[in-house]
Amino acid sequence: MISKAMEKALNGQINKETYSAYLYFAMAAYFDSENLEGMAGFMKVQAQEEMGHAMKFYNYINEQGGRVTLDAIDKPQASYKNPLEIFQLSLKHEKFITDSINKLMDQAIKENDHATKEFLHWFVKEQVEEEDHMAKIVSKLERVGESGQGLLIMDAQLGSRK
Ligand code: OFO
């Protein structure tokens, strides 16, 4: 069993993970409109992973005899300056998610909720990877600068993500 406060907080995370998926789909749509299919493909895979994260919370709440309740999803930004801005925003967003996971962990510790702490460990590790992944892409795109050729190489590289 989880507390009512924990149930509410975990439901809040379902919303954030689903918003993450929506945000990355919006970014994919921008890339598709710019004919950067590799980057679009990368963001589609990312969006699917985020739905997987939302489902982990969904399943955990149910396993713990809680009630899943879904809230409205915010509208994501639709237009962007360039690929660098998109990956900078992605990194910023992942930092926001890390902060949210850390707050859930703080709550689980405060409530002495060992099962939820165990469940959240996967996300603590996942966020280290997510931030590292986005930060590396930002750094490469900064080096690419205005080079069209560099951008196409990055597009091909990012498109190889399965
Ligand atoms: Fe991007 O890790 Fe979930 O939100």
Detail the topology: elements first, then pairings.
Elements: H1 4-33, H2 37-63, H3 83-110, H4 114-144, H5 148-158
Helix pairs in contact: 1-2, 1-3, 2-5, 3-4
Bound molecules: hydroxy diiron-OXO moiety (OFO).
Residues 17, 20, 50, 53, 94, 97, 130 line the site of hydroxy diiron-OXO moiety (OFO).
How would you summarize what this structure contains?
The protein has 162 residues and is mostly helical. Helices cover 78% and strands 0% of the residues. It is elongated and about 55 Å long.
Key features of this structure:
162 residues; mainly alpha; Ferritin; 78% helix; 0% strand; binds hydroxy diiron-OXO moiety
Could you name the CATH homologous superfamily?
Ferritin, core subunit, four-helix bundle
CATH topology: Ferritin
Radius of gyration, Cα only, in angstroms?
A: 17 Å
Shape type: elongated
| pLDDT averaged residue by residue | 97
Word description of this protein:
The protein has 162 residues and is mostly helical. It has one domain (4-72, 79-158): Up-down Bundle (Ferritin). The chain has helices at residues 4-33, 37-63, 83-110, 114-144, 148-158. The relative contact order is 0.16. The mean pLDDT is 97. Hydroxy diiron-OXO moiety binds at residues 17, 20, 50, 53, 94, 97, 130. Hydroxy diiron-OXO moiety binds next to helix 1, helix 2 and helix 3.
